């Protein structure tokens, strides 16, 4: 009589009692699908006026916390389940902090898409009193004024940071640092009033409005941000690099130019991009000194110039007979401004990634 031996099943002790690698992701997507379907049904039934994206995200993450804990407890045991639950609660806290941003972004996208068309980017508001028109004049004005502000702020801010880090000593450096700190907290409308008063005194014209004035106002807000960000990046450069250059007989100015700046250039450019993104949405100073117009204006030194923040404000506040057309243009302008800021942040990230020295990566 023959006996047949059956091999015991092979098990991997390292993966036994563990959830698959992407189990958390699938549970999160399932949670969002469930809560999204729930709020979608409420919207379709007319119980709510619109789709509740904030409720979908919040209750989706909350449901995920419950699912990941229960599934992990059943498969991995109570100890691992507690670890996953605490991690999920941290994610829930982070989600709560992001809810205002999610709400604003979603609302802007939903309301801005109806007028996010070719006409919006190829036409101005000249002779338009109802539907139609666009924000080409505002987009051009925003790019010109912000670009001029960057040309004014970047050299001043960068040179100031180099002085504070490499040369600054004594009372002068402390005084500059103090005034930079004060300028960091200055209200934006004060910068606009400063630029208006400055050019009104220079030109002896109490009603002056032009683009370069808006650039000066924005530069007042940009300079302290550029100084602070550049100063921190320069401080991160190891002193050993400076000492090695000095040991080779390299002058200090050449060490700064050839060693310090190339090493910190990625962080400096990132700080500059973020400072531009910070001021590009300012409304009050531009409303005071740059004014607003419905026509194209490519000359920074002559006549009023429209910008996107002021365009959004005027479209919403000065509604005509067709109110919906003005509101749609305002939302489309806000969406365009958000996309420009997002693009600047993406560019800053790419610069930081590709221009950072390899030894520091």
Report the order of strands and helices: HHHHHHHHHHHHH
The low-confidence runs, each spanning 5 or more residues with pLDDT under 50, are 11-16
* Main CATH class of the largest domain: Mainly Alpha
CATH topology of the largest domain: MetI-like fold
Mean pLDDT: 87
Our count of helices gives: 13
What is the number of domains? Answer: 2
Overall shape: it is flat
E-strand count: 0
The CA-CA distance between the termini, in Å, is 70 Å
> Architecture of the largest domain, CATH level 2?
Orthogonal Bundle
CA radius of gyration:
28 Å
Top keywords for this entry?
mainly alpha; 2 domains; 13 helices; Phosphate_PstA; cell membrane
Overall description:
The chain is mostly helical. The relative contact order is 0.10. Helix 10 packs antiparallel against helix 13 (323-355). 72% of the residues lie in helices and 0% in strands. Mean pLDDT is 87; it is low at 11-16. The longest helix is centred in the first third of the chain and has 35 residues, at 78-112. The chain has 2 domains: 23-114, no CATH class; 136-360, MetI-like (MetI-like fold, Orthogonal Bundle), CATH 1.10.3720.10.
């Amino acid at each position: 009589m023959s006996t047949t031996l059956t091999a015991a099943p092979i098990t991997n002790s390292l993966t036994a009692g563990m959830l698959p690698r992407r189990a958390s992701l699938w549970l999160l997507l399932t949670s969002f699908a469930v809560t999204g379907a729930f709020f979608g049904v409420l919207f379709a039934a007319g119980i709510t006026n619109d789709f509740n994206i904030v409720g979908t995200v919040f209750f989706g993450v909350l449901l995920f916390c419950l699912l990941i804990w229960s599934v992990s407890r059943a498969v991995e045991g109570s100890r691992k389940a507690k670890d996953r639950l605490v991690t999920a609660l941290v994610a829930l806290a982070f989600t709560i902090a992001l809810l205002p941003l999610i709400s604003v972004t979603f609302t802007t996208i939903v309301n801005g898409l109806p007028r996010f068309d070719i006409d919006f980017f190829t036409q101005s508001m000249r002779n338009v009193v109802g539907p139609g028109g666009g924000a080409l004049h505002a987009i051009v004005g925003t790019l010109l004024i912000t670009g001029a502000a960057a040309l004014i702020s970047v050299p001043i801010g960068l040179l100031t940071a180099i002085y504070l880090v490499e040369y600054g000593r004594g009372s002068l450096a402390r005084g500059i640092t103090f005034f930079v700190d004060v300028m960091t907290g200055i209200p934006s409308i004060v910068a606009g009033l400063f630029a208006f008063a400055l050019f009104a005194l220079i030109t002896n014209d109490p009603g002056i409005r032009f683009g370069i004035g808006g650039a000066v106002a924005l530069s007042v807000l940009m300079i302290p941000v550029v100084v602070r960000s550049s100063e921190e990046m320069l401080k991160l450069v190891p002193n050993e690099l400076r000492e090695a250059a000095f040991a080779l007989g390299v002058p200090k100015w050449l060490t700064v130019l050839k060693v310090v700046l190339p090493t910190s250039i990625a962080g400096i450019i990132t700080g500059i991009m973020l400072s531009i993104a910070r001021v590009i949405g300012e409304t009050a100073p531009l409303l005071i000194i740059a004014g607003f117009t419905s026509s194209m204006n490519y000359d920074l030194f002559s006549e009023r110039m429209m910008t996107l923040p002021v365009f959004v404000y005027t479209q919403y506040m000065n509604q005509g007979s067709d109110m919906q057309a003005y509101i749609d243009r305002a939302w489309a302008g806000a969406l365009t401004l958000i996309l420009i800021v997002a693009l600047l942040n993406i560019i800053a990230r790419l610069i930081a990634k590709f221009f950072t020295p390899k030894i520091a990566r």
